[in-house]
Specification:
Layout lengths: L30 H17 L6 H9 L10 H12 L2 E5 L5 H9 L2 E5 L16 H12 L2 H20 L2 H13 L2 E4 L2 E4 L2 H4 L2 H9 L4 E4 L2 H5 L11 E5 L4 H7 L3 H8 L15 E3 L4 H7 L2
Parallel strand pairs: 1-2, 3-6, 5-6
Antiparallel strand pairs: 3-4, 5-7
The structure holds 7,8-dihydrobiopterin and fe (iii) ion.
Length: about 290
Amino acid sequence: MKAAALHGLAAGARPANADWTIPQRWEDYSAEDHGVWKTLFERQTRLLPGHACDEFVAGMQNLAMGADQIPDFRRLSDVLMQRTGWQVVAVPGLVPDEVFFEHLASRRFPAGQFIRQPHELDYLQEPDVFHDVFGHVPMLMNPVIADFIQAYGQGGLRALRLGKLPYLARVYWYTVEFGLVRQKEGIRVYGAGIASSRAETVFSTDDASPNRIAFELERVMRTLYRIDDFQESYFVLDGIEQLLQLASIDFSAAYERVAALPDLQPGDVLPTDKVSHRGTGSYHANRKTP
Ligand code: HBI
Ligand code: FE
């Protein structure tokens, strides 16, 4: 098995710029790089109907993104800027929390400059250009998500100072990365971690194994998450607009209440949960036996 190359923070990189941005150097992508994009783009695009939420599909249609080439961030930024005032900037990979939040608070989305290798198509831990651009950028065309992610950046800077970042990170995880939303036709994907993964797109929406529970802020703040596998529970919004109110409230009172309660395991279901699907748990139960 070939090892994955490391990037950004994980590679121990020292940035030339304090904000960790680098030139995208679009001209330097190889034919193989564009080929990886094309493979991923085509198979994910086939899955969008019936799985992705309307806002995701609309965002994708209005961006000049296609299968043939890794997008040029300058062109993406031109379209985004007109719609929601966001830009896409290139970074080497993971960047420090404070740097990440500063970008989001300024409506700049830091996107990994590199693309995964052909032997890493289905899984990688670091955010690459496919995850960041295919997964996140379509939702940044939506004004509600655009404001929510900026508020997350501002809230992240406050949470860092308060020592409460783990609680806020769980909200991001279960919304922006792994969020589901209820629509007329059924439960749909809006989270980028799901939308950029073929297997998790199907697992999160169609599989009997995971729980699907109505999103509730303090419930989610208490919930631990998995970074190395599918989620055991997904949280479902009643509509994307539900994030509007979250963008405007100060979380500090919620942090205090949640700090007095125990953390919850990823698969826990509480009597107070509004459960739309009680998972069988079969997927993770089978994984535990070596
Ligand atoms: N850096 N490039 C990048 N992308 C992320 O999603 C990211 C990051 N640094 C920190 C981080 N996420 C998270 O730890 C915070 O959202 C909590
Ligand atoms: Fe992401």
